[in-house]
Amino acid sequence: MGNKIALVNGQIYNGDDSFIGQALLINGEVIQGIFPKHAIPADYRQIDVQQGVICPGLIDLQIYGTGEDLFSAELTSESLLSIDQQLLKQGCTSYLLTLATNTLAVFKEAIAVYRTSGSPMALGLHLEGPFLNVLKRGAHPAELIVEANVTDINDLLAEAGDAVKMMTVAPELLSDACLTLLLEKGVLLSAGHSAATFDEAIRGFDQGIKATTHLWNAMSGLHHREVGLPGAAFAHMDVMASVIVDGIHVDFEAVRLSKQLLGRRLFLITDAVGACEKGIYQHIKQKDHFTLPNGTLSGSALTMLQAIRNCVEKVHIPMDEAIRMATQYPAELIGRSDIGNLNVGSLANILVFNADYEVQSVYLEGELVD
């Protein structure tokens, strides 16, 4: 039998439910259930979380690195596993390792490294590019942005297996043949770095694009005569949208309005990078965000737990909903029912944090992280 643990004396958040005076039971690597304290079996070791918040481990579907690690600059298993360990300390237990626009050769090398890394946390790769619109490139090098074609897609994904889980594309520049091919290969498509009109975006959504990448950033604007990609995301009820809630990439008031319009279709990402002084993406730390050497905003210094705190304290989103935005909703988007919740049989990926949003403890598949 595996390790049997009962987390007690905390407030448990699981999906639409919250519990006080209950215990979360872990049996080995999975959740055993939520029980009254008096019903805890005698063979479970009780751990007092001292009135902390108990919730599923956080899920980040767009992160490039953290601290001093930027995966695309190293392309090694050591770099990937270092990112794992740093994210665990932040309360993030699952993520899509993201690479910005680069050469196909670099993408293929990243795929090969990921497939041999053995990471217990990385769920796959999110390729943000290279099939973007240069007019909305942001920090992406214009010379590396290319028009999608069937030959390149087949070459890129020939030996990828299921490593590439998500790709950000500009829907207005993606042919029907390319969009269909990517979907047939099991890639979740998200619209971003795009100058799409409302009609172009809606057409892409109707054809199977399921999300919008970092809402408001690097996309067509919301104008009263042409509501563009943001307006299409608001209007299309089958589409979700990620947002960076650091108060820099998106004003908190814009997040509040987005939440009113999108409801449970809005989820959190960090878009975080690591400090880097080499290669094509040289990220310079500017206190609470990163820029390229020329001053272009290039990534956040946000953690998922900080994003939850900003949602609660700056946007006035209730705690339970802010937690769902960082757990349940991203898990639903990628089709994972075994993470992002504390249901019986789900993986025991758990975060405990205190009233000051400080990480108290993290469990990865039932094991306490040191």
From TrEMBL:
GO molecular function list = metal ion binding; N-acetylglucosamine-6-phosphate deacetylase activity
Q: Where, in this chain's numbering, is Zn(2+) bound?
A: 128, 193, 214
Q: Where in this chain does the record put each Amidohydrolase-related domain?
A: 53-369
Cite the cofactor comment. Answer: Binds 1 divalent metal cation per subunit.
Keyword terms, alphabetized? Carbohydrate metabolism, Hydrolase, Metal-binding
Q: Which cofactor does it need?
A: a divalent metal cation
Which residues constitute the catalytic centre?
271
A Pfam family hit: NagA_N
- Family matches, as Gene3D superfamilies: Metal-dependent hydrolases, Urease, subunit C, domain 1
Share an example GO biological-process annotation for this protein.
Answer: N-acetylglucosamine catabolic process
Annotated substrate binding lies at: 139, 217-218, 225, 249, 297-299
Q: Does the keyword Transport apply?
A: no
**Which protein family is it in?**
Belongs to the metallo-dependent hydrolases superfamily. NagA family.
Q: What is this protein called?
A: N-acetylglucosamine-6-phosphate deacetylase
The organism named in the record is: Sphingobacterium psychroaquaticum
